[in-house]
UniProtKB/TrEMBL annotation, chain A:
Subunit structure: NDH-1 is composed of 15 different subunits. Subunits NuoA, H, J, K, L, M, N constitute the membrane sector of the complex.
Species the sequence originates in: uncultured Truepera sp
Predominant subcellular localization, coarse grouping: membrane
Protein name: NADH-quinone oxidoreductase subunit I
UniProt subcellular location: Cell membrane
GO cellular component: plasma membrane
Gene responsible for this protein: nuoI
From TrEMBL, chain B:
Top-level division of the source organism's lineage: Bacteria
GO terms classed as biological process: ATP synthesis coupled electron transport
UniProt cross-references to InterPro entries, sorted A to Z: 2Fe-2S_ferredoxin-like_sf, 2Fe-2S_ferredoxin-type, Asp_de-COase-like_dom_sf, Mopterin_OxRdtase, Mopterin_OxRdtase_4Fe-4S_dom, NADH_UbQ_OxRdtase_75kDa_su_CS, NADH_UbQ_OxRdtase_ferredoxin, NADH_UbQ_OxRdtase_Gsu
Protein name as it appears in the record: NADH-quinone oxidoreductase
Domain 4Fe-4S His(Cys)3-ligated-type: 100-139
Cofactor: [2Fe-2S] cluster; [4Fe-4S] cluster
Lineage of origin: Bacteria, Thermotogati, Deinococcota, Deinococci, Trueperales
Alphabetic keyword roster: 2Fe-2S, 4Fe-4S, Iron, Iron-sulfur, Membrane, Metal-binding, NAD, Oxidoreductase, Quinone, Translocase, Ubiquinone
Subcellular location as annotated: Membrane
Record-linked PANTHER family: NADH-UBIQUINONE OXIDOREDUCTASE 75 KDA SUBUNIT, MITOCHONDRIAL (PTHR43105:SF13), RESPIRATORY NITRATE REDUCTASE (PTHR43105)
Length: 174, 791
């Protein structure tokens, strides 16, 4: 190692001293998240209000962490939950096991499950990491814990990020 | 015959189909319409291959040879051939790999997909679909069809048990052929023509006991099991190949469970027993397993109430009371208990110096002297049935119909059962004359028989005597019986099948065996339950039988039995020192018990059963959530621990060690076809005075009466428990069709719905028996159900 190399290295360090710091003082300040960031899943609806999910379980088949459980049932033709014959009666994702790889989104034939931007999923009990349909259908904002806190404080959920828009997230508004 | 498939040379029997040659050579062609054990018809045109053969010169009688090489010249058929309907010829060359063939196959695939909906994600066949797999392997990958697809009905309920999606049907005709060829009930057909063709029926529902098999063979998701609709995807099920414990045939089944529930049961292949077919009760009768009132923990009596407890508490409770010496102990298991459970029951009884027994057990032995196998039946040229196999052992019903086609079960090839057996044809003439069915009433099988003999119930001995001596007997003319005798003696492979009504009488069974010996016939005895044969062979029997055990014990340990269904017996059981009942549900008997232990059902056990041929078959447990339920082995293990002894049969392994000594077979991991090892017949029991009078015949039933209440879907399809009454009797007794009545048989009160039918002879009503009722003649009193309510 020559003196020149050391000088080069120190040069890099020194040059950063004069740049604007990237540190964000979360949670006071909101994190800026890229549009393609993969956070908590959303279950989307068609514009007519019907759920996009048809309960086909392909996401569960694609999931490398085996963290999705789907139980399907037959739609009541008079009052359908989703278009067609079949809908997801139970749709659960265990967020502790999920590695946010996005394979489920890739596998979904109807674009029903899409990874959103929410990342503040910390909680206290194992069972609270199992997210059901109610926790993921569009319109639900925040993690389970955030919603519990919001309920307690009687304030709306406040998410800790600013997100870029992503077309796949039809109907999701942060 | 020498054939060449691509680069593989084979030597096959003449008559083999070209498609089987291809598979035997280890190559593959796509196919949808051919199906093992059914006729090939060449409907789907997927199995195309380039087929050619050498030709002989008429004059020289030598092969026409290639001028250059001197080898026999191959003359190819002008078009590609459907290999399933082409028989092999000497020197045949089959090509399945060339571009021409592949292109034709992918072209056919495109045609199949033109009108096929893109339903895979919501289709219950997805993941196990022949069309999906073949489209992936042989299809073009993209569609050129830009127009509207055909639209037809999407969820048409063919019956309560089967849904049909007409858009998905590819018109392979498997289902239509199945009904005509296998059970012989023609209930489905194509309606309309061309692109409008659809599968349909003119009947109400599907009037057959064997409808579920079409959901197994439909290559697409057109015909689906309605009971498991949308319950899970094919890759999500835990598949357990096991044996059905619903009847004595030992039919192979595949139990598909998910998250601790049995979602569906499918037929599995046992080439020696049920081929691929199972009856609807075996397929759809599992719903009771997940019934909400299933017992999941032991119960201990505290005063008038039974309270939940742990197994340890239950065992301590029992041990403290069993310690008292000098008690007469009885242990009884139901006859579908496994051999291993039988060992456990015997060991427990022996340790407590008591008796072990199994029930139901007919008066006569169920082990035949010269036993027939299912293959013997299917290849027989004279079959004499006394009884009702359709209800007793449904698999046998189908194997008898195999014999009527006159085509022996196919030889296995390198890839297994031939895919296209060219000996089988659509609408084959049936050799009805080889089948004679005798029963006290009109049975289902009689529709297929050359000769039907309806004799007065209870006169089975006379019937066999009559056939043997050629004299009139059992109210049947001498001529008819003589004809039967000569048919049996002239036949090369006669088989006599003895149903429950024969076995109920030792004298009749003796007469039947005498007849069989005189005409050289093999005998098949239809034991009442899945392991009747095995438990008898293991001698889980006591001298006095079950009846004595119930009356002469101070301590009773019962597994899956409900003697207190009879209030008179129930009164006696009340006075027992200790009554331990091992059952899956609460019954009249658990209501009297001191301790109730939760029992596993036949789908959850591990063990071995012996079917009516004497075939040892392994039973494997499906992953079902049944709380702390145990089989009888578990009961004996826990009791043994509490009593401080190590009993034989405390585990499956220890039971098998003991069985290896008594039966000389190692029962761990038997082959899928089982181990055919009939045991020596024993002396038929003492002749007890048979009941020869009565107005009611308790029959066996494919739909298990005790479980029907917890199987609403099966009940909806096949109706509730019916009391069948002859129209004349109904009028005389003022009984109306569809009315609910209570049938009092001794101390047993059974509810049933009246069904008026000519099937029941005059003066005799027919009622399916429960597991705890002995089959045969008895006297009953019919009370309108309404009276019971008002009283
Ligand atoms: S993101 Fe990946 S790990 Fe998470 S649920 Fe989807 S497939 Fe499974
Ligand atoms: S039948 Fe097969 S190919 Fe057709 S929709 Fe169902 S899974 Fe897909
Ligand atoms: S319903 Fe199924 S088995 Fe019947 S013809 Fe159609 S595709 Fe074939
Ligand atoms: S034509 Fe269908 S398998 Fe040959």
């Amino acid at each position: 190692m020559s003196v020149l190399d050391i000088a080069k290295g120190m040069g890099v360090t020194l040059s950063h001293l004069f740049k604007k710091p990237v540190t964000v003082s979360y949670p006071e300040q909101k994190v800026d998240i890229k549009a393609r960031f993969r956070g908590r899943h959303h279950l989307l609806r068609h514009p007519n209000g019907l759920e996009k999910c048809i309960g086909c379980s392909l996401c569960a088949a694609a999931c490398p962490a085996y963290c999705i459980y789907v139980e399907a049932a037959e739609n009541d033709p008079a009052n359908p939950t989703s278009p067609g014959e079949r809908y997801a009666k139970i749709y659960e994702i265990n967020m502790l096991r999920c590695i946010f790889c996005g394979f489920c989104e890739e596998a979904c034939p109807t674009g029903a499950v899409v990874l959103g931007h929410e990342f503040e999923l910390a909680d206290f009990k194992y069972k609270d990491f199992t997210y059901g349909k109610d926790d993921m259908l569009v319109g639900t904002v925040g993690s389970k814990w955030q919603r519990r806190e919001a309920d307690r404080l009687e304030k709306p959920v406040e998410l800790g990020f600013k997100a870029g828009q992503r077309v796949e997230l039809e109907g999701v508004d942060y | 015959m020498k054939v060449k498939v691509n680069d593989v040379e084979l030597d096959l029997e003449p008559g083999t189909s070209a498609i089987d040659a291809v598979f035997a050579a280890g190559y593959d062609v796509p196919y949808f319409c051919s199906q093992e054990y059914m006729s090939p018809i060449g409907a789907c045109r997927m199995c195309l291959g380039k087929v050619g053969a050498p030709r002989k010169d008429r004059e020289t009688n030598d092969w026409i040879r290639d001028a250059e090489t001197g080898e026999p010249q191959i003359f190819y058929f002008p078009n590609l051939m459907a290999t399933c309907t082409t028989a092999i010829m000497d020197g045949m060359v089959i090509d399945t790999l060339s571009k021409e063939v592949r292109q034709a196959q992918s072209g056919m695939m495109e045609f199949h997909l033109i009108n096929h909906p893109l339903d895979c994600p919501v289709c219950d066949k997805g993941g196990a679909c022949e069309l999906q797999d073949r489209a992936y392997e042989y299809g073009a990958g993209t569609s050129r069809f830009e127009f509207d697809k055909r639209h037809q009905e999407k969820h048409h309920a063919l019956s309560e048990l089967i849904t049909l999606d007409r858009e998905r049907c590819i018109h392979c005709k498997r289902c239509v052929r199945y009904f005509e060829e296998v059970p012989g009930d023609e209930v489905l057909d194509f309606i309309e023509r061309g692109g409008h063709t659809y599968i349909g029926t003119v009947d109400e529902g599907l009037p057959s006991y064997f409808t579920g098999n079409i959901t197994d063979i439909c290559p697409v998701g057109a015909l689906l099991d309605a009971t498991s609709r949308f319950r899970g995807r094919n890759w999500e099920y835990d598949h357990t190949r096991t044996v059905s414990l619903d009847d004595a045939s030992g039919a192979a089944i595949m139990v598909d469970a998910r998250t601790g529930r049995i979602e569906r049961v499918k037929g599995a292949r046992n080439t020696q027993v049920n081929l691929d077919w199972i009856d609807d009760s075996t397929r759809f009768g599992h719903e009771y397993v997940d019934a909400p009132d299933r017992l999941k923990t032991p119960l201990i009596r505290k005063g008038a109430l039974l309270e939940p407890a742990s197994w340890e508490e239950a065992a301590q409770f029992i041990a403290s009371r069993l310690a008292v010496a000098g008690k007469r102990v009885g242990v009884a298991v139901r006859s579908d208990a496994t051999l291993e459970e039988g060992v456990a029951a015997k060991a427990l009884a022996e340790h407590l110096r008591g008796h072990a027994e199994h029930f139901p057990r007919p008066a006569a032995s169920v082990i035949a002297e010269n036993p027939a196998t299912f293959t013997d039946v299917a290849t027989s040229d004279a079959i004499f049935v006394v009884g009702d196999p359709t209800e007793e052992v449904p698999t046998l019903d189908l194997r008898i119909k195999d014999a009527l086609r006159g085509v022996a079960p196919p030889e296995l090839l390198a890839h297994g059962v031939p895919i296209a057996d060219l000996r089988l044809k659509e609408r084959m003439p049936r050799k009805r004359s080889i089948l004679t069915v005798a029963a006290p009433y009109r049975t289902n099988l009689m529709r297929h028989a050359g000769q039907e003999l309806i004799y007065p119930a209870g006169q089975e001995e006379d019937l066999f005597g009559g056939v043997g001596s050629g004299k009139a007997g059992a109210s049947l003319a001498a001529e008819q019986l003589n004809q039967l005798k000569s048919a049996l003696s002239d036949a090369k492979k006669p088989v006599i099948i003895l149903g429950a009504f024969v076995l109920a009488s030792a004298a009749a069974t003796r007469a039947a065996e005498a007849l069989a010996e005189s005409v050289g016939a093999k005998v098949m005895k239809l034991g009442p339950m899945a392991n009747s044969y095995g438990l008898e062979a293991l001698e889980v029997t006591s001298d006095g039988g079950y009846a004595d055990l119930l009356t002469q014990s101070d301590v009773l340990i019962l597994s899956n039995l409900n003697p207190a269904q009879d209030v008179q017996i129930g009164e006696r059981l009340r006075n027992l020192d200790l009554l331990i009942v091992h059952d899956s549900f609460e019954t009249e008997t658990t209501g009297l018990a001191h301790v109730v232990l939760p029992a596993k059902t036949g789908y959850e056990k591990e063990g071995t059963v012996v079917n009516l041929e004497g075939r040892f078959l392994n039973v494997y447990p499906a992953p079902v959530d049944s709380g702390t339920s145990e089989d009888f082995i578990g009961v004996v293990r826990t009791l043994g621990e509490a009593l401080g002894v190590r009993l034989d049969g405390r585990s499956v392994r220890s039971a098998r060690r003991s069985l290896a000594k008594t039966l000389n077979h190692d029962l761990a991991a038997l082959p899928e076809e089982g181990l055919l090892a009939p045991v020596d017949a024993k002396e038929i029991g003492e002749t007890v005075a048979d009941t020869v009078a009565g107005n009611l015949l308790l029959t066996s039933s494919l739909l298990k009466v005790d479980r029907l209440r917890r199987n609403p879907k099966l009940r909806a399809a096949h109706g509730d428990v019916a009391l069948r009454v002859n129209p004349a009797d109904a009028e005389a007794q003022n009984l109306e069709a569809g009315a609910n009545v209570t049938v009092n048989i001794g101390g047993v009160a059974r509810s049933a719905t009246i069904k008026i039918t000519e099937d029941a002879p005059e003066g005799l009503m027919l009622l399916p028996a429960t597991f705890d009722q002995a089959l045969g003649l008895t006297s009953a009193e019919i009370v309108p159900a309404a009276d019971l309510v008002s009283a």
